[in-house]
């Protein structure tokens, strides 16, 4: 009889813990990205690299981590000023393809409703100008 009582107390304790544990609540996650020029024809020290590979661009940061159902806001700046320095921010899994003209700022927002790892990129400079959106399951 005593063993059942202890198990009953333990079960009641675990039930109280489960009921009092905070539930996951989706939140707004804001990220600030900028375009970067890793290899540039404007830098004389990179002349050989540009001749062999062309100019190389990227996003910084290039990994964004959120939870499922979070509201995601991405504020992106294209810091380059040349006439041929336009980019895009393309996240196909979420139907996003925004133009980033030189010296511009674009704000993108969406709900991360799919779990997984999704690539984003610039349509003009992929695969090098790319990154990942990591959507973890809601707790």
Explain the overall architecture.
This is Cupredoxin domain-containing protein. It comes from Acidiphilium iwatense. Residues 38-135 form the EfeO-type cupredoxin-like domain. This protein is α/β, with parallel strands linked by helices and 139 residues long. The chain has one domain: Immunoglobulin-like, CATH 2.60.40. Helix content is 19%, strand content 44%. It is built from two helices and nine strands, in the order αβαββββββββ. A four-stranded mixed beta sheet has the order 2-1-4-7. β5 and β6 (96-100) form a beta hairpin. The longest helix is centred in the N-terminal third of the chain and has 19 residues, at 2-20. The radius of gyration is 23 Å and the shape is elongated. Mean pLDDT is 85; it is low at 1-21.
Number of domains: 1
How many beta-strand elements? 9
Whole-Å distance between the termini? Answer: 38 Å
Order of helices and strands: HEHEEEEEEEE
Overall SS class? alpha/beta
CATH class: Mainly Beta
User: For the residues shown, what is the average pLDDT?
Assistant: 85
| Percent of sequence in beta strands | 35-45%
Radius of gyration from the alpha-carbon trace, in angstroms: 23 Å
Major sheet strand order = 2-1-4-7
Helical fraction: 10-25%
Largest sheet: 4 strands, mixed
Protein name: Cupredoxin domain-containing protein
Signal peptide: 1-25
InterPro entries: Cupredoxin, EfeO_Cupredoxin
Keywords: Signal
């Amino acid at each position: 009889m005593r063993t059942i009582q202890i198990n009953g107390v333990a079960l009641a304790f675990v039930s109280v813990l489960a009921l009092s544990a905070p539930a996951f609540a989706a939140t707004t996650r804001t990220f600030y990205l900028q375009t970067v020029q890793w290899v540039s024809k404007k830098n004389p020290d990179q002349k050989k690299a540009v001749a062999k590979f062309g100019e190389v661009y990227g996003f910084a940061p290039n990994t964004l981590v959120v939870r499922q159902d979070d509201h995601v806001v991405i504020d992106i700046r294209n810091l380059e000023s040349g006439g041929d320095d336009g980019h895009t921010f393309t996240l196909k899994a979420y139907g996003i393809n925004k133009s980033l003209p030189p010296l511009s700022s674009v704000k993108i927002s969406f709900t991360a409703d799919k779990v997984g790892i999704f690539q984003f990129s610039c349509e003009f400079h992929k695969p090098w100008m790319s990154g990942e959106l990591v959507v973890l399951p809601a707790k």
